[in-house]
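User: Structure please.
Assistant: Input sequence and predicted structure:
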Amino acid sequence: MPLGPMDDFLAHQTPDTFDHVYSGDRTFYDRYYFNCHSCSDEIFLITGMGQYPNLGVLDAFVCVSVEDQHYCVRASRELGHDRLDTTVGPFGVEVLSGLETLRVTCEPNEWGLDFDLTFEGFVPALEEPPTIRRVGNRLTEHTARFAQVGNYSGQIHVAGRRFDVTPDRWKGARDHSWGVRPNTGETEPPGILAKYRPEGAFGHFHNWIPMQFDDFMIKVYFDEDKDGNRHMEEAVRVPRIGIDEPIIHLGSPKHEIRWKSGTREIAQTVLTFANTDLRVVGTPLRTNYLLGGSGYRPGEDWGLGHYQGALEVQGLSWDLTDPKQFAAIQGLNEMLCRWELSTGEVGYGMHENACAGVYHPYGFDTPEAVAP
């Protein structure tokens, strides 16, 4: 248990040094996520960084959707014992003021995708309900997360273009999550877990929706199984920093989703809630297809927490006008939307969604089914 710089802080939670975590589960992780947009369909950037103490890996990525292209740069290195070192290849994350201000960077590189962005929180960081799931007798997920919307300043360079990022119109969301989570590290044999997820019968519908308006955030989150039964739900209205008002719990969210024909890509989202007459309508502006290079879909060449050696940095791109390339990155869609409230306010924010396998409420009765 070698000492690291964090061990000099009065913050220990166990008798171990900071390079050890409470659980020996190989899937333990600690991850940043950020998205950034200009409240338009011009560009959508998503970046993240994760540490995997029991796998000895730190990795990061950026995915940018601009024009008809999807670009990705990603990096991985051995974690070592200094968990305060949040750099890998060209990437870095710096906490300037905890729960308020962070700087995220990707230095200039051979793939022509780099950025230097400072995130300033617009609302207080919101702690989500913990996620706890078991499959059979195994704890497969036990995570904590907080989320926050905010404004950005800085610069982005991609595809030979420069975007000057100013806080008057560049916004986005971030989260920080940690704990035990599946799809982390190299794939392990399914063993008895296959009994509980028979081929062709599993389904999962995931939705994570932070919306930013002039004076508040609306945050909606729900996960459902193949029959529409809820694993998790949250719906809150959070006032911006400086407004002395309580958080309002909107009640259980209900969804009416219209799908693009021949796909499982959302064309429109309508949300209503149990405790209010509020109605929210989301119209997609631009989608970032996060499975394109980020590692969220494990593959033979890359995955979150996969060991790549002492250091590995890669760049990739996809042509979204090519049906084969486009189909290859479908599945986890980060959909930037314009959100209109029945009370008249208009805001912007992402609808992260994945409809995997079987999902009967919208007629996806087989894993291959798509909208008519």
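Helices lie at 193-196, 323-328.
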